[in-house]
TrEMBL record:
GO BP annotation list: protein transport
Lineage: Bacteria, Pseudomonadati, Pseudomonadota, Gammaproteobacteria, Vibrionales
Descriptive protein name: Sec translocon accessory complex subunit YajC
Top-level division of the source organism's lineage: Bacteria
Annotated family: Belongs to the YajC family.
Membrane association type: Single-pass membrane protein
Keyword tags: Cell membrane, Membrane, Protein transport, Translocation, Transmembrane, Transmembrane helix, Transport
Predominant subcellular localization, coarse grouping: membrane
UniProt keyword Transmembrane helix present: yes
Pfam families for the chain: YajC (PF02699)
Species name: Vibrio superstes NBRC 103154
Entry's transmembrane regions: 20-38
Gene: yajC
Length: 110
């Protein structure tokens, strides 16, 4: 039988990497994940919540759909606001879709 199969000799030492090294590696990945993905995203969410809370009637805003207009009314109970695109057109959108509050006079310059 040993004619066709070479003899395998067991190594006297354990495997090349231990379990402790694997835990250190997982910990490093968790730290990288936190600083590169979770923390910047939570900062953006906090800034957007502050932006939504600071909006008022008469502010000029930009929506995620690309609409630019002036806030004509805000509904506090169901998080919707009406944006006046021009004196004849008004749209109602959810507050979450506002991406930026523009400086005063932006609509006149467009």
């Amino acid at each position: 039988m040993s004619l066709f199969i070479s003899q395998a000799h067991a190594a006297t030492e354990g495997p090349a990497g231990g379990g402790f090294e694997m835990l250190i590696m997982l910990g490093m990945f968790a730290v990288i994940f936190y600083f590169m993905i979770y923390r910047p995203q939570s900062k953006r969410v906090k800034e957007h919540k502050n932006l939504i809370a600071s909006m008022g009637k008469g502010d000029e805003v930009l929506t995620s759909g690309g609409l630019v207009g002036k806030i004509s009314s805000i509904s506090e109970e169901n998080d919707f606001l009406a944006i006046e695109l021009n004196p004849n057109n008004e749209v109602v959108i959810k507050k979450d879709f506002v991406t930026a509050v523009l400086p005063k006079g932006t609509l006149k310059s467009l």
